[in-house]
Amino acid sequence: MYKKKLIIALFILSTTLLSCKKSVLETLKDTLVSGQWNIDKYVFTNTSSTFTVNNYGTYTFNKDGNGTYVFSNNPSNVNNFKWSNTDSTITTTLTSNNQTTIFKVVVNDKTKQQWTTSSNNVHYDYTLTKK
């Protein structure tokens, strides 16, 4: 009887701990990304050239999964998007046209993000720092 109670108690404990661990990880991922980020460097590369822009604008990631970005060359044009993330990707979908971009996360910490994505033989790199 004791062995049966011990097995049940261990099962309940392990289930509870695994549930808590997932919640902590989800919260950590949201904390790392959510907030306002400066786009310190934007690099556009195609088959014939590379174009680099410093201080390109800002991304804002709200904890509710919505966000905005503004590029410094057109500060009156605020773009809205929905976002989600995993340990290795950031996915944004523009609300104006449902265009989805999946960024591979190269660096993911509290103060710095580096992302990369490619489409139609064009490669994009972003370096962001938390405001």
Structural description of this entry:
With 131 residues, the chain is of the alpha+beta class. The chain is built from one helix and eight strands; from the N terminus they run αββββββββ. It has a single domain, classed as Lipocalin (Beta Barrel). 24% of the residues lie in helices and 52% in strands. The chain has an eight-stranded antiparallel barrel. The radius of gyration is 20 Å and the shape is globular. The protein starts with a helix and ends with a strand.
| Total discrete domains | 1
Oligomer: single chain
- Strands of the biggest beta sheet: in what spatial order? 1-2-3-4-5-6-7-8
Provide mean pLDDT, rounded: 83
Structural class: alpha+beta
Name the beta content range. over 45%
Helix content: 10-25%
Count of strand segments: 8
Low-confidence segments, given as residue ranges, are: 20-25
Short description:
About 25% of the residues lie in helices and about 50% in strands. It is an alpha+beta fold.
Secondary structure blueprint with pairings:
Blueprint: H1 2-33, E1 35-45, E2 50-61, E3 66-71, E4 79-85, E5 89-94, E6 100-108, E7 112-119, E8 122-130
Antiparallel strand pairs: 1-2, 1-8, 2-3, 3-4, 4-5, 5-6, 6-7, 7-8
Structural features:
single chain, 131 residues, alpha+beta, Lipocalin, 8-stranded antiparallel barrel, 1 helix
